Amino acid sequence: MNENTTIDEAQARAAEAVAADAARPAETAEEVVHTYGEVRTAVTANRANTLALLGCLREVLEARPFREAEAAVEGSRAMALTMQNPHALYAILLKCGAVESIPVPEDDTAIAEAPVDDAAAADAHAEAGDLPDQPTDYLLAITDLGRAALDEFEPAKRFGELLAGEPEGYRSAYDTVLACCEEGASKAAIETALAGHPALAFPKQVYPGYFISKLETVDGISWDGVWRTTEAGQRMRALLA
């Protein structure tokens, strides 16, 4: 069992506990005050979850039903690295205060909760967007702490911080990979593009996969059957000019 697996299991347990309480009204008058440190810790605790958590935040810039937010994240490229599902990820964000749950008054969910007696009525509810067996329950919305996280972890900023800790010669290698992936590229094509590049041998030996992995974790490239430069990756190239 590696470190990431252990962290994933711990976060999953915490997520289940938070998810169970997310839609329940507070039973105490005392409000829990979160800090940005909690949010930052949650976002960085497991690198495999970072992009997915940030993707979750982007889906709730405006309040929306929790199921709708989870469905928007499911299958997105932000989920490529994580072992968590959207419900667990939002539970992590709720626990640290990056996202808030907004209860929906019972009057607003009465139609959704009402029984449907016949097929015609069921079809009418479906066309209207009502799901009798899935009441809205609560909305999810980003908090100021969550917005601060999106600002700090903006992909180009993360890439700039990455570059600051890398040998100068790596800049050209990253640019080569981003350029190679503009129209989509296989790993073999990237390896060919980097063949003979000085960054592979100095100041130490590294392999093309190093640059692929680093760019993926800062959302510079993503995989959809081939590696493709993302919109964020386009901005990253500007930093390399």
Question: How would you describe this structure to a colleague?
Answer:
This protein starts with a helix and ends with a helix. The chain has a three-stranded antiparallel β-sheet. It is 56% helix and 7% strand. It has 241 residues and is mainly α. Residues 25-29 and 110-133 have low confidence and may be disordered.
**SSE string, helices as H and strands as E:** HHHEHHEHHEHHHHHEEH
> How much of the residues is beta strand, in percent?
5-15%
Number of continuous helical runs: 13
- What does the radius of gyration come to? 22 Å
Average predicted local confidence, pLDDT: 84
Low-confidence stretches: 25-29, 110-133
With strands numbered from the N-terminus, the spatial order across the biggest sheet is 1-3-2
- The rounded distance between the terminal residues' Cα atoms is 42 Å
What summary fits the major beta sheet?
3 strands, antiparallel
Backbone shape: elongated
Number of strands: 5
Which bin fits the share of residues in helices? 55-70%
